[in-house]
Amino acid sequence: MALALALPPPLSQPLKPPRKALSCRCSATSQQHQGVIASSSQLTSLNYRPAVILPGLGNNTSDYDKLKLTLNGYGVPTVVAKVSRIDWLRNAAGLVDPNYWRGTLRPRPVLDWYLKRVDEAVNEAKELAAVSSYALLAHKATVTVIAVPLDGGTLSLIGHSAGGWLARVYMEEFGLSNISLLLTLGTPHLPPPKGSPGVIDQTRGLLNYVEKNCSKAVYTPELRYVCIAGRYIQGARFLDDPNVNPSSAAYVDIGEPDSKVAVVNAASLSTPVSPTFRARFVGQGYKQVCGQADVWGDGVVPEVAAHLEGALNLSFDGVYHSPVGSDDESIPWYGSPAIVEQWIHHLLN
């Protein structure tokens, strides 16, 4: 179906990068907030807000079963919005909207079906919040879990991929009085730059709408935005010059997020190394999202597009975009247990 409301699908067999220790990079936006993060050993009482997971485009509810179990293991009651893969065909309704063809599509009514599923999940989580939450009371070497009322009934929203910007639409349309945290995982928050050669807005204006009409990201005691990006593979550009021999193109890592394709003399004594086809393929996907191919990303969403000004922005090395096609050892995604361990404290504050 020629419906351009989706990002490029995850690679069926993601490229396995050389194994290295997973690391986290905090952006300059986040530095002012680092003082608010405390370890569990420093906390005497914690209210664990229920969490609602918003599936990404093309995913279904069961893709997040393991993430739900992982969060439950930390004492975070979790609800996943009920979405099936076939549900996403409902987006075809946008094809009959003239705004689709003009590139000025709005989330409603095309995505009302998704927002309704999110609202149902939020109401289910509210019931969990109204009944009880969990508090950890540390006493010497003993940790006791008890149920206590949760004042205010606040929730955490976890948006994966498109679920992140759809969470922003939900908060704008349905209100955010019960939401204290929006944590996004590999979400393409920013619309592609206009006028970039070869770039077509795959959301047909939806991200432009979100950027113009949804509330800006904040990081306050009342409401926190945490945006997490992955650095799984660096994209590369296709060589557009027909006179350039691909064998004479060297991939030059200059130690910055955007490496370049450099043309070297064929008589050079150095041995040129060309970008792989996968890097070029992934780079074309990145280009459709942010206007640039030779950037780092999670295999689907470039790092630069997954961060928001005003949010606490984090990047994790070696993290793949989707639960589909990933595994917890060689190809971890944002919801793999070892990765969750690095961001779970945002749900426990």
From TrEMBL:
SUPFAM superfamilies noted in UniProt: alpha/beta-Hydrolases
One cellular component (GO) term of this entry: chloroplast
Gene3D superfamilies assigned to the protein according to its UniProt record, in alphabetical order: alpha/beta hydrolase (3.40.50.1820)
Domain of life (superkingdom): Eukaryota
UniProt cross-references to InterPro entries, sorted A to Z: AB_hydrolase_fold
Transmembrane segments: none
PANTHER family on file: ALPHA/BETA-HYDROLASES SUPERFAMILY PROTEIN (PTHR47909), GPI INOSITOL-DEACYLASE (PTHR47909:SF2)
Protein name: GPI inositol-deacylase
Species in which this protein is naturally found: Rhododendron simsii
